[in-house]
Write a structure and sequence with these properties.
Layout lengths: L1 H11 L1 H9 L1 H7 L6 H11 L4 H12 L16 H8 L1
Helix pairs in contact: 1-2, 2-3
Amino acid sequence: MNVYTLLGAALCDERIRELLFKNPLEAAQELGLLLTHQELIALKAFLSADDFEEQFEDLARKQCPHPPCPLNLARPDHGEESLSSAAD
């Protein structure tokens, strides 16, 4: 399931999308997601398919034509600063 979460986040977040195509494991870690070895192998095969990156970019533009995308996931550290300042 984490693969689907990662792909969905990449559709809505250009930075995650760029990282996904450069280093899928680092992209998953950025979101606090754990991938099994088999998931990572399958994801790399999926991402390396002919024209996939171009098709994914097209889908992202259709999904969220006016960034920032309202469907974007909050990163794990989102809001930590505001929570720590509220505790003071």
